[in-house]
Amino acid sequence: MEILAFGVQADEKPLIEQAFRGRHDVRCLDVFLTEDTAPIAAGHEIVSTSVNADLGPRVLETLAAGGTRLVAQRSTGFNNIDLKTAERLGLTIARVSYYSPYSVAEFAWTLAMAVNRRIVRASTRTRDFDFRLDGLMGRDMHGRTAGILGTGKIGEAFARIAHGFGMRLLGWDVAENPACMELGMRYLPKEQLLAESDLVSLHVPLMPETRHLIDADALKTMKDDAILVNSSRGGLVDTAALVGELRAGRFTGVGLDVYEAEAGLFFLDKSLQAVEDDTLARLVTFPNVLVTSHQAYYTEDAVGQIVEATVKNVLDYRAGRRSENVLVPRS
């Protein structure tokens, strides 16, 4: 049986091919699954997709009509999948429920420190042999307050790093994490957390109730000199409202590894094309903003775990087993 994998990055391809070797043939495509590319999957019972795949009703209907029965997504998030349509069509949907939380937590801290200490600006200057320090002053994180929205595995890992910096820890979540409380974290309502935090980092899943969790009102609640980091899902932040606050001169720094309209942009080379997204074009012009292309998870450790979990999902499906990774079970 040949498995068709969409949206495979160059670094990811050898890991996928090695993991499936001796089990199933796998064909890796660098194109993402969309309405236009879905017909390619015809004749493939098993399809694997990336986090930015379009798995809305039309794509799922095309896959089902072409004989696909399992969609194995190589990510934890599944807000891009219409689960009700998948169930109606008899498609099995699986994801990766767990991979290294340190990959994302460490990258979130990389963004925080990069904007705090003006690393991008400093690097650009020194390439031009400009060694002035003007405009490069940052702040000690020691003794300041870190507000963590979402204190699951990734949020906990982020909190442990913050604790190592000697920061005061504030948390917000639907349930308190005892491990975070042992670090001294206090759980507060969102508005109070935002008002007291010098650094705000987002680690919650994107759901209808969390879309634009950081909206215009939330942004206005934050300190003028706060740092905002989002390495979770772009839809958590109202980007247009964020641009408005940045234009008003607010925030020491903003680090974004995700963007709410990233589908069709991130993971692709758009350098020779006109930028059609006015909000993103404006966002990247601010000197205190750093945008990266959804790479927080992208370590050998995390990607290796994602690939192994995907292989397991395929083997479980073939054997008729169900695991915690299954979102829509085999009918």
TrEMBL record:
UniProt keyword NAD, yes or no: yes
Membrane-spanning intervals of the chain: none
Residue ranges constituting the D-isomer specific 2-hydroxyacid dehydrogenase catalytic domain according to the UniProt record: 8-327
Xref: Pfam families: 2-Hacid_dh (PF00389), 2-Hacid_dh_C (PF02826)
Entry's Gene Ontology molecular function annotations: D-lactate dehydrogenase (NAD+) activity; NAD binding
Domain of life: Bacteria
Matches recorded under PROSITE patterns: D_2_HYDROXYACID_DH_1, D_2_HYDROXYACID_DH_3
Keyword Signal: no
Record domain D-isomer specific 2-hydroxyacid dehydrogenase NAD-binding: where: 110-296
InterPro entries per UniProt: D-isomer_2_OHA_DH_cat_dom (IPR006139), D-isomer_DH_CS (IPR029753), D-isomer_DH_CS1 (IPR029752), D-isomer_DH_NAD-bd (IPR006140), D-LDH-like (IPR058205), NAD(P)-bd_dom_sf (IPR036291)
Keywords (A to Z) from UniProt: NAD, Oxidoreductase
UniProt record similarity statement: Belongs to the D-isomer specific 2-hydroxyacid dehydrogenase family.
Entries under PANTHER family matching the protein: 2-HYDROXYACID DEHYDROGENASE HOMOLOG 1-RELATED (PTHR43026:SF1)
Name used for this protein in its record: 2-hydroxyacid dehydrogenase
